[in-house]
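Re-running the complex after MR caught last week's input typo. The corrected sequence lines follow. Everything else is unchanged.
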Amino acid sequence: MNRISDAIVDLHKMDMEAGKCGWLQGIHPLPKLFVTLIFILLTVSFGKYDLPGVLKMGIYLIILFVLGDISVKLLLKRMKAVLLLVCLVGIANPFFDREVMFRLGTVTVTGGMVSAVTLMFKGIFAVSASYLLMVTTSMEDICYALRKMHMPKMFVTVLMLVYRYMILFLKEIQRMTDAYTLRAPGQKGVHYKVWGTMVGQLLLRSMDRAQNVYDSMTLRGYNGEFHLRCKKRAGGSDYLYVFVWSMVLVCVRMI
Amino acid sequence: MSILEIEDLSFTYGSLRNKAGNHVLSNLNLHMEDGESVGLIGENGAGKSTLLKLLTGLLDMQEGKVLVSEFEMKKENLNKIRTVIGYVFQDSDSQLFMSTVYEDVAFAPRNYGKSEEEIYEAAMSALKKVHMEDKKDRQIYRLSGGEKKLAAIATVLSVGVKLMLLDEPSVALDPKNRRNLIRILNELPGAKLIASHDLDFVYDTCERVVLLSDGKITADGEAKKILTDKELLEQHGLELPLSFSRKISF
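Corrected-run output:
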C-alpha cells in the first residue's frame, strides 16, 4: 500500500473510531468541543518560559487517552507531519535568546532553549487535544457543535466540504499515481517532467468529481447550508464533564 | 396520469450552439405515465446523459418544454421538481458523501426542513425499500459496489420521488448484485427512466424502450419488440441483448 491509500484508510478509520460506542464517544459533541477549546486556550496562555506549567496541562491528555483507550502510537503515526512541524516552530529561539536561565551540571540552559521546548509542548498538546476530539467525535458532530457555538455558517460549511472532498481528492491522486506506477516500473515516485501534466490532470479530474458531488447535493435540496443535527441529547453526565474538566484545567493553570 | 411530458426539446453544448447539425438533442418528444418503467438506450454520445441532466435541471433548458408532474421545467420550479424527480448517478461515490448510510439517506429530507421524526421515518422507509435497513449505521466506505448503488437509490427515495432517473445503474456490478438490483427496481412502485447500455438489464426492468440516436428518438415501443429487432439495434451501434442472441444462435 502506498502513502496515499494509507492516508485514505486512516481518515476512514478515524471516522469509524468516532462512531464507536465508548464513553468518550458517548459524550455530547458540544461539551467535548468546549473543553478542548478551554484546554488549548489555557495551554497557550502560559508564559514562554513556563515549561513546568505547560507540562502540568498534560494531565488532561493522559487521563483521556487512558480512559478513552486511545492509542498514542496511532496519534504519532497519523499526526507525525503536523507534530514535526510544531516541533520546528521554535527551533530558532536558542539563537536569538541566549540569556542563561540555569545550569544542569556543565550544560548551560538558555531562555531560548526553554522557550523552544515550551512552544514545542504547547503545539504537541494542542494537536493531541484536537486529535482526541477528532477520534471521538464525527465531523458532522464537530460541525454541529461549532454551529452551536455560533461559528459562522460559511466556515462550518467549508470545513465540512473540505473534509469530504479531501477523501475524493486523495482517491483521485491514488488512481493517477497507480496508473503512472504501473506504466513506470522501477521508478521512485513521479518523474519531475510529468509533474505539470499530472497536477493539471488532477485539477481537472478533481473539479469534475467535485461538480458531480455538488450536483448530487443540489438535487437533494442543498442550498448552501448543512442542516446538522446531533443524535445525542446533552444530559447530566455531559454537564458534569464540562464542569469537572473546566475546574481541573483552571486549577492546574492557577497553581 | 402523466409524470413526464417532453415537447420539442433541443439542446446544444456551449460553443457548438448555432452550428447546424451539432444538436445533442433535437426536437425530442417523450411522454411517460406514472409508474411506468422506460429504458433509454442508444450508443455513446446519443444524448442519454444530457437528457437526464436536463430533466433534473442540472443543465439549463434551451428550447422546448418539459413538464414534470404538473411543474414546468423552470428555475423557479426546480425545488418542487426535485421533490418529484430523483437522479441516481452512474458513479455511486459521487452520490454518497456523508459518513454513514443513514446520514446520507437523511440528507435530502433534512434539507427540506422535515422534523427529526419525519426524517427518520423517510430514511428508514427508503432503506427498507432497498433492503438496507440493517446497514443504516455502516460507514459508506465499508459498503460494496452493489450496496453503494442501493444506498444511492435510497438517498433519492427518501424524498418520496415519483420518477427516478438512473444513469447506467448496472455498471460495475457483479451478477449477484445485478440480479438483486433488478429485483429491487422491479419492486419499486414509481416511474423509472433507465439509461443503459446493458440491454439485458433494460429488458429485465423496463416494459417500454426508447432508442435515442443523434439526439432524436428513433424508436419507442414495447421492450421486447425493440430489443429483439437486430437490424434496428445494429443500425444504431447496439447489439441484441445476450439473452436473445443466445436464443437465436441456439
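None of the earlier attempt is carried over here. The longest helix of chain A spans residues 153-182. The CA atoms of residues 160 and 205 of chain A lie 21 Å apart.
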